[in-house]
Amino acid sequence: MKKQEKSSATEHMERDYAERVNLVESVKLSNDLKHAIEREELQMYYQPMIDFKTGEVEGFEALIRWIHPERGFVSPGLFIPIMESSGLIVEATKLALRQSCRSLKRFEDELSPAVPMKMSVNFSNQDFYSKGFVKNLTKTIAKEGVKPEAVKIEITERILMDDPEHTRKVLSECREKGLSV
Fold first, then answer.
1. Surface-to-core class of residue 102, CB atoms within 10 Å of its CB (0-12 exposed, 13-18 middle, 19+ buried)
2. N or C terminus: fewer CB in 10 A for the chain?
3. 32: helix, strand or coil
């Protein structure tokens, strides 16, 4: 029985230690993320959206990625939840939108597509509830010289479920400004 108690106590200590290590790592990554956002070190990767009827590229989805200077590629599955829990997601999304709009403008200027391209950008729950969300969104799009109808807002189901009325209001404002959802 003593051997079993010792094993259980050891397992408990190991679990506590692992949780503390994970917490310390999360705090370190959160600090590194804050600096990466300030220095605009987060990178945008673009996944093409193809019209299957014509085979033409009709736009792209903007995906935020992080190449840590020491750790290398950090999975979005790891750093996005850290950004959300630390409150950094709103600033990261603003950076992602600016960079993506610049890329869309450059693609349009260089490629002169016959059909205007669409760019899809993901937004978090915190983005939707941030003060002046729609105003900041439209201001950034205008500043970067992109037409609002070229920007498609992507949201998660969680945003819809958390506060459907607020979500409806914000999405209506976005549509009124020419954005698609």
1. middle
2. N
3. helix
- 176 is written with which tokens? 């009124």
User: Tokens standing for 92?
Assistant: 């990261």
CA angle 170, 174, 176 (to 5 degrees): 115
Task: Please report how many Cα atoms fall inside a 13 Å half-sphere around the Cα of residue 85, on the Cβ side.
Answer: 12
Query: Taking a C-beta distance cutoff of 8 angstroms, is the pair 104, 61 a contact?
Result: no
Residues 118 and 58: beta-carbon distance below 8 Å: yes
One DSSP character per residue, 144-169 reads TT--GGGEEEE--HHHHHH-HHHHHH
Residue 45 half-sphere exposure, CB side, CA atoms within 13 Å? Answer: 8
Mean pLDDT value across residues 38-66: 92
Tens of pLDDT, residue by residue over 132-164, are: 999 999 999 999 999 999 999 998 888 878 888
CA nearest to 162, candidates 122, 126, 134: 126
Give the pLDDT confidence score for residue 2 in this predicted structure.
55
CB atoms within 10 A of CB 153: 19
What are 112's two structure tokens? 């002169």
- The C-alpha atoms of residue 43 and residue 76 are separated, in whole angstroms, by 12
